[in-house]
Amino acid sequence: MNHHSWDAYSKSYLNIQKNPASFQLSLMNMLRFEEAEDILDAGCAGGQLHQYILQQRKKNCKLTGCDYSIEMVKLATARMLKFLNNPLQGGISEISPQDVENVDLNSPLLEQNNYKIFQGDVQSLPQLNNNQFDIYISNMVLHLVENKDQAIQEAFRILKPGGKIGIVIPVVSGNLMMHTLTKCFIESGLIKEMPFKPTDFENREGMINFISKHGFKDIVCWNQTIPFDLFDIDDNYIFPQFREILDKAPKEQVDQFYALFKQEVQNRLALNLPFTVESMSLIAKKPS
Ligand SMILES: C[S@@+](CC[C@H](N)C(=O)[O-])C[C@H]1O[C@@H](n2cnc3c(N)ncnc32)[C@H](O)[C@@H]1O
């Protein structure tokens, strides 16, 4: 996967965002966003946290977002401009493709509100200064990054002494949503085996060792399980990795996949249970 897959995915980002938001909210509470003066959201996608952060932040606190997908950067900017122009104008999901396409990435309104967003790869952020941020948040990004050591070294460099990092990654083993999707993909002949293998980060020990190796202290790391609603089974649930497979497959197999998945949803509803997704979350400090 590369930034082009995420460019394409930005078109359905507003759908997926309807679902799990609570990993990030727990993380932000644990980090105490309201005390920070300078916050970075690394791999911010369409900026689903940004309006919330703006409302919670301390006066004059700066918020910066970055993502390596330019389409995501445009979407986040369009949403922020809509919000800044009139927070009561309606839901941010009402952004039109034209709003995104024609967005002014250099609108002075952004800077006036201490908001900055740019296209950048979390593995190398020369645009950002040493010791700049109080908080570095990265929600559902690190597992996608090729050189994770480099990404965490960058985070360490740009955080102030005493600054905090907050990371969330999905965990394969407890992810019923992912397992069910994978099962339906395999049964309809679209793939042969589970495409996502548990990584070293899947357990707390691996994650804690990885972060402490880079100099972080006061590490708190926890698993979190949250529900996914079952109200519809449209493309909300088709993550970009799966989307790429569906786009290339014969219609017959795609129809079979949807039929199988629909049945799985019915089975779950019969138990009065939602699907669930699970994360590994972590916060830590750069020593003062
Ligand atoms: C699952 S989304 C994360 C969403 C966002 N953090 C949120 O809380 O809604 C993953 C995002 O990470 C971005 N991404 C993946 N690898 C990246 C990298 N090396 N540098 C910057 N962004 C990256 C993708 O473009 C995508 O927008």
From TrEMBL:
Spell out the Pfam families in the cross-references. Answer: Methyltransf_11 (PF08241)
Cite the CDD domains for this sequence: AdoMet_MTases (cd02440)
GO MF entries: S-adenosylmethionine-dependent methyltransferase activity
Q: Which residues form the Methyltransferase type domain?
A: 103-165
From which domain of life does this come?
A: Eukaryota
Its name, as the record gives it, is Methyltransferase type 11 domain-containing protein
Protein source organism? Paramecium octaurelia
